[in-house]
C-alpha cells in the first residue's frame, strides 16, 4: 500500500490517478497511523512553502519521518521534494526536514517565473529512481523556487541556473517535476518507485 | 533547456468536441477523452478543454467530460469556460483538471484569481484574455468576445499576474479561426510586459506561424485547435518542423 499524504495543499487527484493507472494500491490519507503503516510514502504538494506547516499542525510530520527512518521508500514531489531540504526563501519561518542541505531559492529575474513546461533532465549515473528513462528525458515542471544542486542529486535541469530536478539517498527520493504529468517518462518513474 | 509548448485545444459543446470558424458552422470533431488521448499520443505537450457554451445546464456535462478526459491523460490538463466563482473551480479540479482558465469572471472580480490561487496554487490558474487591436492598442473583450471592456491587454495581464495568475492564455480575436498566423505584435507586447509564461492563441495555420510566434512573439507556448483536429497539421510533424527551425520542443515524446 502506498500512502499519499494529504495535508491540505492543492490537488492530489492526478498523483493518485497515475498510481491507479499503474495498478498500485494507493490511499490518500491525513491519518498519521495509516502513513506509518504503509509500505511506501508519497508527499505531493503544489503551492506555497508555508502550506507545509500543516504537516506539523495535522501531526503528519512525525508519521512521515517515522516511516522514512524505518527505511520505507519515500517520494517527495514538487513542494514535497523541497520539504526534504533545510528550508525555502519562500517562507523563512518554516523549517524543512533538513535531510538534504541548503535552501530553496527563487529563480533569477533574467528568466520567466514560474518555470512552467517541459525541460530536459540530465540523469546522473547510478540513480535508482531514474534508471528506466534514458539519459536526457523531458519532464514537466511548474514552480517558482528551486532546490540547490547537492551531492545526492539524481537529475539536474537548467532554467537561468542549474538546479536539482531530482534527489535520492537510500530510501529517500524527491523530484521537483511532476511525474504524474510527464507522460510515459513520468509513469515509468512512478513504476520504478513502486519497485525500489 | 526549457522547451516551447504545443498545446491542443478542444472546444466542447454539449459533451462533444466541435470546431467552427469564430464559433459558427460548428462541426463535430469527436469525443473529448478520445481526442485528448490522441493528441497526447501524437506529441501535444498539454491539453486545454474549453466549454464554449458554458451555460449552467451544461455544467454536469462538462464535469462528466472532464472526469472522462482526465482519467487516462498524463500530461497537463486545463479546463475553461463558465468558471464564475471559487466553487465552480473546485468542482472542475475535483473532476481531474490540473489548471483552470478564467476570463470574464476575473475581469469582473480580479480577487477571484487570488482566491483560486490561494487554494490550488498559482500554477493552477490560467488567466485567459481575448484581445483585439483597436487603433494601435490591444483592448480586452469578455463574454466570448461580445463585450468590450475598454481595458488594455498588457495592463490587465500585469494586474492578473500580480493577483496570482500563473500563466496568460492570450487569444487574438482578429486572428481566431482564420489560420492566417498568430498576432505576434499582441503576443510580444504581453510576453514582454509580464514575467509569467504567455500562451499564444488564435490564427495558427502552418508550422511557419508557430516558428514566428516563438521567435517574433516571444511566446512560451502556442495553442491551436482546428488545424490539429482535421489533420491539417499533425502535432508530431509540426514538432519535427520546429526542431528543423531550431525551436526547442519536447521530442521524441
Summarize this, please?
The complex is a heterodimer of chains A (196) and B (253). Chain A contains six helices and 13 strands.
Describe this structure in words.
The complex is a heterodimer of chains A (196) and B (253). Chain A has 196 residues and is α/β, with parallel strands linked by helices. Chain A has six helices and 13 strands. The model of chain A has no long low-confidence stretch (mean pLDDT 95). Chain B is of the alpha/beta class. Chain B has ten helices and twelve strands.
Taking Cα atoms only, what radius of gyration of chain A do you get, to the nearest Å? 15 Å
State the helical fraction of chain A: 10-25%
The overall average pLDDT of chain B, rounded, is 92
- Strand line-up across the major sheet of chain B: 1-4-5-6-7-10-11-12
Strand order of the largest sheet of chain A: 2-1-3-4-13-12-11-8
Mean pLDDT of chain A: 95
N-to-C series of helices and strands of chain B: EEEHEHEHEHHEEEHEHEHEHH
Rg on CA atoms of chain B, Å? 17 Å
Low-confidence stretches of chain B: none
Largest interface: A-B, 36 and 32 residues
Instruction: Count every beta strand of chain A, where a strand is a DSSP E run of 2 or more residues.
Output: 13
Shape of chain A: globular
Given the helix and strand composition of chain A, which structural class is it? alpha/beta
Number of strands of chain B: 12
Amino acid at each position: 500500500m502506498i500512502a499519499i499524504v494529504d495535508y491540505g495543499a492543492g490537488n492530489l487527484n492526478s498523483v493518485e490517478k497515475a498510481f491507479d493507472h499503474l495498478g498500485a494500491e494507493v490511499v490518500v490519507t491525513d491519518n498519521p497511523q495509516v502513513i506509518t503503516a504503509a509500505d511506501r510514502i508519497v508527499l505531493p504538494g503544489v503551492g506555497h512553502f508555508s502550506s507545509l506547516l500543516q504537516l506539523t499542525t495535522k501531526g503528519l510530520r512525525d508519521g512521515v519521518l517515522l516511516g522514512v527512518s524505518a527505511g520505507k521508500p519515500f517520494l517527495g514531489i514538487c513542494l514535497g521534494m523541497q520539504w526534504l531540504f533545510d528550508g525555502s526563501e519562500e517562507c523563512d519561518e518554516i523549517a524543512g526536514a533538513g535531510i538534504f542541505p541548503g535552501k530553496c531559492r527563487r529563480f533569477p529575474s533574467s528568466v520567466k517565473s514560474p518555470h512552467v513546461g517541459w525541460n530536459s533532465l540530465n540523469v546522473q549515473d547510478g540513480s535508482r529512481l531514474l534508471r528506466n528513462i534514458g539519459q536526457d528525458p523531458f519532464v514537466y515542471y511548474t514552480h517558482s523556487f528551486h532546490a540547490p544542486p547537492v551531492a545526492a542529486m539524481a537529475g539536474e535541469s537548467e532554467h537561468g541556473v542549474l538546479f536539482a530536478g531530482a534527489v535520492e539517498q537510500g530510501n529517500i527520493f524527491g523530484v521537483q517535476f511532476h511525474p504524474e504529468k510527464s507522460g510515459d517518462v513520468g509513469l515509468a518513474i512512478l513504476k520504478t518507485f513502486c519497485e525500489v | 533547456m526549457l522547451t516551447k509548448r504545443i498545446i491542443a485545444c478542444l472546444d466542447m459543446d454539449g459533451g462533444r468536441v466541435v470546431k467552427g470558424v469564430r464559433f459558427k458552422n460548428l462541426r463535430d470533431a469527436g469525443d473529448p477523452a478520445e481526442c485528448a488521448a490522441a493528441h497526447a499520443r501524437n506529441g501535444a505537450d498539454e491539453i486545454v478543454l474549453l466549454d464554449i457554451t458554458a451555460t449552467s445546464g451544461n455544467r454536469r456535462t462538462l464535469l462528466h467530460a472532464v472526469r472522462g478526459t482526465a482519467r487516462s491523460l498524463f500530461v497537463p490538463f486545463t479546463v475553461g469556460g463558465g468558471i464564475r466563482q471559487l466553487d465552480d473551480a473546485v468542482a472542475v479540479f475535483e473532476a481531474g483538471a490540473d489548471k483552470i482558465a478564467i476570463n470574464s469572471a476575473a475581469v469582473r472580480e480580479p480577487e477571484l484569481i487570488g482566491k483560486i490561487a490561494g487554494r490550488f496554487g498559482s500554477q493552477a490558474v490560467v488567466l485567459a484574455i481575448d484581445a483585439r487591436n483597436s487603433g494601435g492598442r490591444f483592448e480586452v473583450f469578455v463574454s466570448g468576445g461580445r463585450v468590450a471592456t475598454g481595458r488594455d491587454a498588457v495592463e490587465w495581464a500585469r494586474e492578473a499576474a500580480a493577483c496570482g495568475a500563473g500563466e496568460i492564455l492570450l487569444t487574438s480575436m482578429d486572428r481566431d479561426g482564420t489560420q492566417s498566423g498568430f498576432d505576434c505584435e499582441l503576443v510580444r507586447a504581453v510576453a514582454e510586459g509580464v514575467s509569467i509564461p504567455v500562451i499564444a492563441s488564435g490564427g495558427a495555420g502552418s508550422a511557419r506561424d508557430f516558428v514566428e510566434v516563438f521567435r517574433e512573439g516571444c511566446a512560451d507556448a502556442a495553442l491551436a485547435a482546428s488545424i490539429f483536429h482535421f489533420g491539417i497539421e499533425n502535432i508530431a510533424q509540426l514538432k519535427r518542423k520546429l526542431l528543423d527551425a531550431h525551436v526547442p520542443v519536447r521530442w521524441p515524446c
